[in-house]
Amino acid sequence: MKDKLIIFDTTLRDGEQSPGASMTREEKVRIAKALERLKVDVIEAGFPAASPGDFEAVQAVAKVIKDSVVCGLARALDKDIDRAGEALKGANQSRIHTFIATSPIHMQMKLQMQPEQVIEYAVRAVKRARQYTDNVEFSPEDAGRSEEDFLCRILEAVIDAGATTLNIPDTVGYSVPDQFGATIANLIRRIPNSDKAIFSVHCHNDLGLAVANSLSAVMNGARQVECTINGLGERAGNASLEEVVMAVRTRKDVFTCQTGIDTREILTCSKLVSSITGFPVQPNKAIVGANAFAHEAGIHQDGVLKNRETYEIMRAEDVGWTANRMVLGKHSGRNAFKSRITELGFEFGSESELNEAFARFKQLADKKHEIFDEDLQTLISEAGFEAEDEHIKLIALKVCSETGEIPNATVTLRVDNKEVTGTASGGGAVDASLKAIEKLVQTDATLELYSVNSITNGTDAQGEVTIRLEKAGRIVNGLGADTDIVIASAKAYINAVNKLHSPDQRRHPQKGDV
Ligand code: KIV
Ligand code: ZN
């Protein structure tokens, strides 16, 4: 029997700390459900003391997730631990993750505390967390630049205080694989009570080494890896879940442990996180990039056709890539639609939600004969996005785009039940349309991101547009999909504007927040 490698996903906490990746409570719940289907062991849902929005998001995730442990982050402060304990009250299985910095530079400059004091805070925090749950994780922040002797002392003390998982974070992505692996082996060997806790790692990707460092730690005894979908996270991101999981699975010959992840759910999670956060996945990204399994060179194609293992070390279908399967079409009925959506893991809250989604499906099927799973996923995502306080609605859009002429767009919107029409010209059809909308809604927001992705293959594919707007420090992502990318762009812009107008559910990080 191989050891279990615990997969701790922090997309909803550390991933969200990526500037612009802020998610609403509903979005977090949707991602948490996808992570549960992926069979992630622990879902770090947020940092409850950071803001009321973060507290409510952790609470909401704790309420719906049954199979995975739901975790809340807390500084080593009573008020943070109490907030985390409170947010996790409804969870089937909960964990409190508390941390304090242990590197000389962090202790002196940031905390302005003596090492002895830091140990006192850590021990006190773990004991307090144990009053809420017997599943307590402790992290010495910036462990990658901490002194090993000090790490041994503080970790021994927190195990005695009741910590069950010791997470070693390379907070600033400074470590290199051999050295980081050796640190993990040394800690396990030197700490007298190390057998009473699970060693975990949490690596940042500043030098592009987060996955390599995590795997080196696993080879040296770590049995939990903290990671995020698509490697989302602060600065250069965190270790990517899909890469860690597939490395351990593909190289069974070198790893003495295995994960419980259902790898066929990887791609769905990747697409969901990408569309919600507006962070596209680069085409050559391992496992989930559009080209990850594409064999372009003739010599490769020839080899793969003769025997796929000549060039393929993994099977695309094992991580959720299926040849775009036509699942539904124009003549599919409501029951077929409902059952396919249910198979994809979505649930309708009410009959009217189902009816509305089915009406959208019919509209799409009129424009596109073959409806793939990816189309259905986008349709549901879009519905979820729009559900949020839609006080501006697109009624009509007419665009004139002709060689040698300046493109022009006329837009009609319903704004708070009143129809308004505006016209603008621009550098292209999309530019003219967004300018016409902006003329009518006058947000004065800054456009931070405009991206278009094709959801499936073919020129009749839906284009999925993400638009990120920033206004007075608040950042929102809007999503729109349509077989016409000008309309998709208009929908995405309106969606973002509606979000700017909706009550501020902000959590860190937003521009100007500490
Ligand atoms: O990078 C880090 O140190 C963290 C800790 C809170 C674990 O995210
Ligand atoms: Zn981190």
From TrEMBL:
Record-annotated residues binding Mn(2+)?
14, 202, 204, 238
Instruction: Name the UniProt key words of this record, in alphabetical order.
Output: Acyltransferase, Amino-acid biosynthesis, Branched-chain amino acid biosynthesis, Cytoplasm, Leucine biosynthesis, Manganese, Metal-binding, Transferase
Provide GO CC annotations from the record. Answer: cytosol
The biological process GO terms on file are: L-leucine biosynthetic process
Reactions performed catalytically: 3-methyl-2-oxobutanoate + acetyl-CoA + H2O = (2S)-2-isopropylmalate + CoA + H(+)
SUPFAM superfamilies linked to this entry:
2-isopropylmalate synthase LeuA, allosteric (dimerisation) domain, Aldolase
This protein is called 2-isopropylmalate synthase
User: What species is this protein from?
Assistant: Methylobacter tundripaludum (strain ATCC BAA-1195 / DSM 17260 / SV96)
Q: Which classification does the entry list for the species?
A: Bacteria, Pseudomonadati, Pseudomonadota, Gammaproteobacteria, Methylococcales
